[in-house]
Specification:
alpha/beta, Dihydrodipicolinate Reductase, domain 2, single chain, globular, seven-stranded parallel beta sheet, NAD(P)-bd_dom_sf, 2 domains, Dihydrodipicolinate reductase, Rossmann fold, DAP_DH_C, about 350 residues, disordered N terminus, 11 helices, 15 strands
Amino acid sequence: MSEGAHQPLSEGIPVLGYGLGPIGLGVAALLAGRDGVTLVGAVDIDPDKIGTDLGLLHGGGKNGVRVTSEVPAAPPGGVAVHATGSGLVDVAPQLEELLDRGWNVVSTCEQLVHPWSVDAQVALRLDALAHDRERSVLGSGINPGYLMDTLVLMLTGACTAVRGVHVTRVVDTNARRIPLQVKAGVGLTREEFVRRARHGRLGHVGLRQSAHVVADRLGWRLDGYEERIEPVVAGEPTATGLGVIAPGDVIGQRQRVVATSGGRDVIQYDLEMSAGAEATDVIEIDGEPAVHQRIVGGVNGDVGTVAVIGNLVPVVADARPGLLTMADVVRMAAAVGLIAPPEAVAAR
């Protein structure tokens, strides 16, 4: 074991905040109040944040950690909380720099939840670098990373057989940050929504990654994947964080995924994010026995992502080296098929 790799720590796990937007600062605030972790550094490119005390940025008292634009060398066992973007290719150079500086990484990047389904070459490069540096890299969050994949797999652990899974998530965008309302298309005309969706500028990122995490762990080789998006239109004047939306204009979106294996539908996702929707999360498993779980009121995505990432810090600090998925660190699931690592699936 190289110096600094997964060693016992007397003062808690050293944590670096990398990317200090709402989620990054939320994780910092969460960890600041916890034993067993120590915030030791903070990195951001915003000139208004550089030089500022991290504690003041996340709403606590001064903690002596000044924000910089440069990644410091990691102390033994250090974990970087990376929260900058959704796209794998965009964040890969940042992850490589963190690994080169000796950090283990837990990231909110949606495509990093299953990077092999996005760009296998980038994923293999990150995996090789992580192994070379004897560090761990993991992408997660509430969705993808937990509700529509990891929690699903945990529930299949009570099944002797699984034929398929169906997850429905409904989000009230009025209870979420403005950037998510914009991403959901709130306030657009129907025509503008369709145009932006056609160019990939709308919609939730990560449903494909969730499907692959589930399929890999359950031994399903996916031979088909279809994803559709459509607008949710106001039937009456609707209050939102972006103002009152007139009837006929867009108050959100619906996305639907159907993934097949052996010509059979095995994974279905229905995601609605719209203003005033009745929030809920429902997981249905067609198995022996059948499982039906409903989370009344749903899980707030911002709060949930902060919690998931913060709770994964000690998990990543203790994980094996390499580029990991949540199925590597949360192993409980139905053993209904040949379980292949994602890098092996990507090479098929």
